[in-house]
Amino acid sequence: MFLLSGAAGLTFELLWTHQLALVLGCTVTSVALVSGFFLLGLGLGARLGSRLSRAPNLLGVFAALELGVALSGLAVAAGLPHAARFVAVLWSGLGGSAEALVLARILFCAATLLLPCLCMGASLPVLCAYLNERLGERFLRSLSWLYAINTVGAVGGVLLCDEWLIPTVGLWKTAQTAASLDLLVAFSAALLSRLPSQRRPEPQPEVGSSPFSPRALYFACWGLGVAGAWQQIVWTRVLIVFQGSDQRAFSGVLATYLACLAGGALLAPLFSARGWSLARVIGMAGLTSLGSLLSLPWIHQVSNPWLANVLTIAPTGLCLGLSFPWLTEETKKSGAGAAQVVARALLLNTLGSLVGALGTALFLIPQVGLQWTYGLASLWLALLALVLSLRTWPALLLCTLVVLKMPDGYLFRLFFPEENRQLIFAGDDSYGSVALVREKDDLEQPVLQLLVDGFNMMSNDLPTRRYATALAAFPCLWQQHPKRVLVICMGLCHSLNTALRDPATEEVHCVELSPKVIQALSRIPQGQEALSNPKLKLIVGDGRQHLVSTSSRYQVITAEPPPPRRAGAVNLYTRDFYQLCKARLEPDGMVVQWMPIFQMSDRQTRVILKAFLDVFPDSYLVEGCGAQLCLIGCQAPLHLNYEYLKKRVASHPGLAATGWDRPEFFLGAVLAGPKALAKYVVDTPPLTDDWPILQYSRDPEDPDLVGLLFSDNESEIQVEYTDPADRAKVQTAQSSLRSLLHCQTQSWLTPAQRSRIQPIGFLEREVRLRLLFRTYPNNPYFLEGTHSSDEAARVLQRRLDSKPSDPELLWLQASLFFRRGRSGEALASLGKLGAQATPPALALEIAILLETGQMQLAAQKVSAAGTRLDPLDVAFLKRWMKT
Q1: DSSP assignment, residue 746?
Q2: Angle at the Cα of 816 (from 461 to 464), degrees rounded to 5?
Q3: In this structure, is residue 251 part of a structural domain?
């Protein structure tokens, strides 16, 4: 029964953590609040359980408590999806300041989780009292088994919840499953309580036989709670960097930690019987914590995430699991009854967990950084051991010396190991470990990268700047009067600066979750430009919470959250989020969503599209850059005046640098309109808050590139032209952009996907690019996106100066020259290849010979090549000769 109770309890906790992230924001702070108040409720419930343990029918009391968990837990799960607005009202009522927001969240968590956690916490003392009536002389063994069995059930709940229940049936039905487990336990306990049983009188405790003072024991109970929450948070933060920030990384750390607690609890009677010192075990916990910190460079190389979790967590986790039942046994020797001892120990332990969770998330990590927080955790455990026994002073001394001698930046160099990176900024906050670095790209040009927990959130290269510019430029330019704009997530300020530079905007609100990201951006020019702009109103907080709490309405809301697979990011891709956005729009407003389909599966792409279309049926899919797409939702079919669009593009100073300097591009880049998108997602379920499948999906990254990028869809935008030539320009732009898109992405297609299109060979690709440069000779994105810029030519020449016969470099130079219309120089580079010429090089040489009228020599080259040429290139050469 206690096994199923543990499974149901942790299932509820995981559900509440996910649901409260929608209310409190997806940070370590929100997780700490949920975990802390969950544990505090257990502790207060333990005090309640000590009183209930005097009841004559203890199994009946246990059944009533499990019934209370089921009903109240289900009520909390049902109410949390509607709680965000209540927190916003409470925040406003408390003054609306940043401190008031923290207080509102604390009060809300306390009120929400109190009742179910009280019932959960009361169950352990009640069962301990029940077993102590029958096994009083074996108190430590019975407590250890109860603690271990409940914890094993909790591990099962974590794995069952994340691996099967939530991905399959969603949050609400998972809550119903957890409630059903509690109801089953309640029913079983009620049946057993009706059976006759013999009660044994509880033996008198061995008063005064403990070598530790009661105050020291109670302080240790509290301190172990602090240490447990402290360690869990730093383990989670470190291992998420190694394994990727997704939900399974968080669940894996939690499951491993709980399993270690269970294993340690089972070992407690054995170690106690063999004369081990409790203080020695706690001192070992401090030393093993320090050892795991020092071992991280090696653990980082372990590819199996579960093995990495065990190596990091198990040594300290087992010691912590050993300590709690052992401490409780020592406390029982002071003269209290079993239920009272367990209740007091559990209350102190959970109070410590609350302090440890909130202190680590709100103070230690933001103020001293993750590395010092990790080191101080080991010092804290060594100090607890010293409180129990002065003989453990060597452990404290060793931990102190090692922590003080540890070099600054130890963890950051581990998180961001590339030696050619220049670190501009590094810092930790409740969102993650933030770093701003500069490195050189393939053309040896400096590129900025914003990294969070080791993941590249945003870059400063041209393709990235292009799609990020599109996220703000398209809706602002399609709008008649985009006076007020909301940008969710700052990134590297590309979208934000695009909105700020638009002369038509009057206010630009930006919501950023991480204070350290803002601090990092203040170090670079583009961030300084944004932060100093008088149009900007910067809000440090969660995007969803802002949409719920603000009274502002916007003409444009643009969102570029982290990729949807990252833990918590799914909350900004669901139908419920888009409904919040729509509620804050002006009647003619638009919402823009970033769609990084190259990082998603076909199913993931479709469920996001379906969620968006459910809220915005009049939506348009736009190519930002390659497979970086923009989904633009309107509240009515889009009608544009081309003359107005021309004026708006001409007046915007921030478009030319990313190649968006022509009005025809803002129509030619549209890949699909409302009808095509609706057809594409027919019979697809939407992504919702209740079914956040992206966070749990194991789907491979296999997007339907053919259906999204290679379909010849109309834009479905009603455009009013006054000059017929403008219509022709739009058609040319659409043809050119799609041709470039196909050239860039065809190599990404799987064989099955290639069979659905008419593929182009290498030679046709080069000719298409050449035509593109003839039409748009100075577009920076077209030049840099195909490695055809003047800078690319200079870098190639420098490399050839040191390796003049390198076939790969000669081939790249010939391709570049051909695209830029320098056929003679291309032919000269190809001639240097000689026998090293590849089939594509032969095909290009033949094409140039045909173009320059050297038919006889071209025919000789064709004859010499024989069957080496790609059939696609041969077919294109035949068409070339005809035209």
Answers
A1: G
A2: 15
A3: yes
* 190 located within any domain: yes
Instruction: Find tokens 């300084």 and name the residue.
Output: 528
Q: How far apart are CA 49 and CA 55, in angstroms?
A: 10
DSSP label at 26? S
Q: Do 643 and 767 belong together in one domain?
A: no
Q: For residue 424, is it within any domain? A: no
Beta strand 718-720 with 554-559: parallel, antiparallel or unpaired?
unpaired
726 and 630 co-located in one domain = yes
Q: Which of 194, 227, 257 is the last residue before a domain boundary?
A: 194
pLDDT in tens, 839-848: 999 999 988 9
Instruction: Please tell me whether residues 46 and 129 are part of one structural domain.
Output: yes
Q: Same domain for 670 and 701?
A: yes
- Residue 626 φ/ψ region, left for φ over 0, alpha for ψ in the -120 to 50 degree band, beta for the rest: left
Q: What mean pLDDT value characterizes the chain?
A: 88
Look at residues 693, 721, 748 and tell me which one is the last residue of a structural domain: 748
Same domain, 713 and 792: no
* Sign, CA torsion 466/469/470/471: positive
Can you tell me the distance from the alpha carbon of 495 to that of 556, in angstroms, rounded to the nearest whole number?
Answer: 12
Query: Do 280 and 325 have their domain in common?
Result: yes
Q: Which two tokens stand for residue 774?
A: 């003839």
In a domain, 809, yes or no: yes
Taking CA atoms, 258 is separated from 154, 229, 571, 613, in Å, by 7, 12, 27, 41
Beta strands 628-634 and 618-625 are antiparallel
Q: Do 16 and 137 share a structural domain?
A: yes
Question: Can you tell me the distance from the alpha carbon of 436 to that of 478, in angstroms, rounded to the nearest whole number?
Answer: 33
| Two tokens, residue 799 | 């490399």
Chain-centroid distance, C-alpha 843 = 46
Range of the domain at 341: 210-415
User: Structure pTM?
Assistant: 0.90
How confident is the model over 167-188, as pLDDT tens digits? 889 999 999 999 999 999 999 9
Statement to judge: residues 772 and 726 lie in one domain: no
DSSP 8-state assignment for residue 274: T
**Using alpha carbons only, how large is the chain's radius of gyration in Å?**
32
Tokens of 532: 């100093």
How many beta carbons lie within 10 A of that of residue 856, not counting itself?
9
Helix ranges (DSSP H) in 389-513: 393-405, 410-415, 462-478, 494-501
Contact of 345 with 327, CB cutoff 8 Å: yes
Beta strands 585-596; 554-559: pairing state: parallel
Residue 576's contacts (CB-CB under 8 Å, 6 or more residues apart) are 22, 81, 688, 689
Distance separating alpha carbons of residues 425 and 420, to the nearest angstrom: 15
Provide the number of structural domains found in the chain.
4
Task: Check: CB of residue 42 under 8 Å from CB of residue 121.
Answer: yes
Query: By three-state DSSP, how is residue 713 classified?
Result: coil
Q: What is the chain's length? A: 883
Domain CATH code at residue 43: 1.20.1250
601-623: string of b/e by CB count within 10 Å (b at 16+)?
A: bbbbbbbbbbbbbebbbbbbbbb
Contact (Cβ atoms closer than 8 angstroms) between residue 842 and residue 850 = no
The most confident of 81-90, 424-433, 722-731, by mean pLDDT: 722-731
Residue linked to tokens 């075990």: 281
